[in-house]
């Protein structure tokens, strides 16, 4: 098995290098869109916090008066067409099954922001300009999407997991070689905590890729929402409560540690695969465990809730712990780079919808 994985990893690495060379020498074209394009991505598999950061940037852009659109590839969505408008900035137009959980979650969290998905971001980028007059386009998970020119390439690296064993898929977590960090214009060390603050990672980046701004960010609990009761509480409500928790994330243990850090008493925790499609039996089993253990609360994440809401008939008021991303150091650097970029790239700030 190990030999097979090594061979697959070598072949994968060779394919990545050929693809990079093809773009470098122009065999594969890089297309541009007349908007300011910001890509948020990583060089590893698993959750580094791309989607929460995209949501934060979209909220900032809206408050700053920019017309923003989000472009995603819609991982594990079942759309029947090559492109799909998940939200037009007024209402959600697609189901979670069609769009995939992360674009659907962005559409719900950001009701005034258009969200579009396609494997070809150039196509939906033009659609966002034509229909919504977007001045700022955010590529969710766009670091490897080399066919679209980006004005600002943001790379996220997890403070704790970093590069794992530093091997390419499937032997390790790397989606491409570490030296491709050189494509980044700005690097954000995510999920920083007191224990894992990323100092060693920053030292490595400053030595190996000098001249790039490096910021730190953290994920923080925001609210505990009870969607069926339509109530929201500060996260301190979990302190001392007996909780049955579950999550289908790339890194479910981080959700567990956050819940523990809020003072909850974890009676049972169930981890599911990332993007897991829950069945009614699975939710009923968790609800039954809550009842049998006389726990106070069944708790999950926003991303998991969108895969449950409306699809499972169990009348159970599950609690949702929402999170927010906060830039911990030199946060103005990021926003100022985007402001300057929008002004210098010639985006028209006055016109509304654009005809392509």
Ordered list of secondary-structure elements with their pairings:
Elements: H1 2-24, E1 36-41, H2 50-63, E2 68-72, E3 83-88, H3 96-99, H4 101-109, E4 114-118, H5 121-132, E5 136-140, E6 152-158, E7 186-190, H6 199-208, E8 214-226, E9 231-233, E10 242-248, H7 252-261, E11 265-272, H8 280-292, E12 297-301, H9 302-305, E13 319-327, H10 331-344
Parallel strand pairs: 1-5, 1-6, 2-4, 2-5, 6-7, 7-8, 10-11, 10-12, 12-13
Antiparallel strand pairs: 3-4, 8-9, 8-13
Structure at a glance:
This protein starts with a helix and ends in a 12-residue tail after the last helix. The protein is of the alpha/beta class and 356 residues long.
Could you explain how this protein is built, in words?
The protein is globular. The chain is built from 10 helices and 13 strands. The model is unreliable at 352-356 (pLDDT under 50). With 356 residues, it is of the alpha/beta class. Strands 1, 2, 3, 4, 5, 6, 7, 8, 9, 10, 11, 12 and 13 form a 13-stranded mixed sheet that branches.
């Amino acid at each position: 098995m190990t030999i097979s994985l090594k061979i697959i990893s070598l072949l994968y690495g060779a394919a990545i290098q050929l693809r990079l060379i093809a773009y470098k020498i122009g065999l594969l074209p890089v297309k541009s869109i007349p908007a300011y394009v910001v890509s948020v991505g990583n060089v590893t598999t698993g959750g580094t916090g791309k989607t929460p950061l995209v949501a934060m940037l979209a909220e900032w852009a809206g408050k700053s008066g920019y017309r923003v659109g989000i472009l995603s590839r819609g991982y594990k969505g079942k759309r029947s067409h090559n492109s799909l408008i998940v939200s037009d900035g007024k209402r959600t137009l697609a189901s979670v099954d069609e769009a995939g959980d992360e674009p659907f979650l962005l559409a719900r969290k950001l009701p005034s922001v258009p969200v579009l998905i396609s494997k070809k971001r150039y196509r939906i980028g033009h659609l966002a300009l034509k229909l919504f007059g977007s001045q700022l386009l955010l590529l969710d998970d766009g670091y490897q999407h080399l066919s679209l020119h980006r004005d600002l390439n943001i790379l996220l690296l997890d403070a704790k997991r970093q590069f794992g064993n530093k091997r390419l898929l499937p032997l390790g977590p790397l989606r491409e070689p570490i030296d491709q960090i050189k494509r980044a214009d700005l690097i954000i060390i995510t999920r920083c905590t007191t224990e894992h603050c990323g100092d060693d990672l920053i030292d490595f980046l400053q030595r190996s890729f000098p001249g790039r701004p490096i910021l730190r960010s953290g994920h923080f609990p925001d609210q505990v929402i009870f969607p069926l009761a339509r109530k929201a509480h500060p996260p301190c409500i979990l302190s001392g409560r007996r909780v049955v928790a579950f999550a289908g994330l790339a890194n479910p243990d981080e959700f567990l540690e956050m819940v523990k850090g809020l003072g909850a008493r974890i009676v049972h925790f169930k981890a599911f695969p990332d993007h897991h499609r829950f069945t009614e039996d699975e939710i009923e089993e968790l609800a039954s465990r809550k009842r049998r253990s006389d726990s106070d609360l069944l708790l999950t994440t926003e991303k998991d809730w969108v895969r449950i809401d409306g699809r499972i008939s169990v009348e159970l008021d599950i609690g949702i712990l929402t999170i927010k991303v906060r830039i911990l150091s030199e946060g103005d650097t990021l926003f100022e780079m985007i402001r300057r970029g929008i002004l210098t790239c010639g985006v028209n700030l006055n016109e509304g919808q654009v005809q392509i």
